[in-house]
Write a structure and sequence with these properties.
By secondary structure, the chain is mainly alpha-helical.
């Protein structure tokens, strides 16, 4: 069923703001990776975002979960939605452009549709979804360049790592619906980030050494941005948009993130993408539009002849 929730000008502004925030996060992460390792960058991201979201939770006086099974669900959610994808994508960004990372990240919606069809009876694959998913995968293949997989190298591995991160994101969506849908979103996000921090901090110290704040100012600003603004703040903005515009309209945000990251990557990091990446994104965007369904409905709606 396609959501027909109308979007107010205020909600449109929030959606554009979220796209700008998330698009810029790819550039800020890449800046931080010049000085910290991928695991350390993820530990910073989850720790500071966790503090902000718990502050919001307590300020709103939301009830806290006490059941051990809920905290076990947070642990799995943290792995699927933070630890695995954040780490894979951060490592991938060391070897590929931030703009390309953002394009491949959009595949999350494609995998999300597939996994929802597998795990939920009310999310079966329709003809429209099959077409959208097929276009999406064609776009991903074009963005990566299948010739790069024949000549397998570190760059190819980095792109596959980012794609593996999107698979993890999609599985996280399934897990959240099954186990955490009854919780306030602020509490679910804070609990997830707490579990993520408990996992990432020891791993970062073990594999990359003690975590220090003795970093260059630009690295500190980048970490502050992608943890406080692009993680904690973006979660809150995401759920605001969800309540106002519905989940279907959030696909529009996905389409806006990559252009923002590509433009900022070119300006801030002097990145230049292969033309295939732009063609791939166009196909992926078309796939997401088909999955959104509203254009599909208009094309299938019978036209009423206009009488003279």
């Amino acid at each position: 069923m396609i959501e027909q929730t109308s979007i107010s000008s205020k909600t449109w502004a929030a959606m554009l703001l979220l796209a700008l925030i998330w698009g810029a996060s790819f550039v800020s992460i890449r800046i931080a990776l010049d000085e910290v390792g991928p695991l350390t960058s993820v530990a910073h991201r989850t720790f500071w975002a966790m503090l902000v979201l718990w502050a919001v939770t307590f300020a709103m006086r939301l009830p806290l979960p006490r059941e051990p099974k809920i905290w076990g669900a947070f642990l799995i959610m943290g792995l699927l939605n933070n630890v695995i994808p954040f780490t894979l994508m951060a490592w991938g960004q060391v070897h590929i452009e931030s703009g390309l990372t953002s394009i491949l990240n959009a595949a999350t919606a494609i995998f999300g549709v597939l996994f929802a069809a597998v795990f939920f009876a009310d999310e079966r694959l329709s003809l429209r979804k099959i077409i959208g998913v097929s276009l999406g995968f064609l776009g991903v293949a074009m963005a990566i360049g299948l010739e790069n997989l024949r000549n397998f190298d570190l760059r190819s591995l980095a792109q596959l790592a980012v794609l593996a991160g999107t698979v993890s994101y999609a599985l996280a969506g399934v897990w959240a619906r099954k186990t955490l849908s009854h919780l306030a979103p602020q509490v679910a996000a804070a609990g997830m980030l707490t579990a993520s921090t408990l996992l990432t901090l020891p791993m970062a110290v073990l594999f990359e050494g003690p975590i220090t704040l003795d970093l260059q100012p630009k690295s500190m600003l980048a970490i502050a941005y992608y943890s406080v603004v692009a993680t904690a703040g973006a979660y809150l903005l995401y759920y605001y948009i969800l309540s106002k515009a519905g989940s279907g309209n959030l696909l529009l945000v996905t389409l806006l993130i990559a252009p923002v990251a590509i433009i900022l990557g070119a300006i801030v990091l002097s990145e230049a993408l292969n033309p295939n990446a732009y063609t791939g994104f166009a196909l992926l965007a078309l796939g997401l539009i088909v999955l959104d369904g509203r254009l599909w409905q208009r094309l299938r709606k019978p036209r009423i002849p206009i009488s003279d």
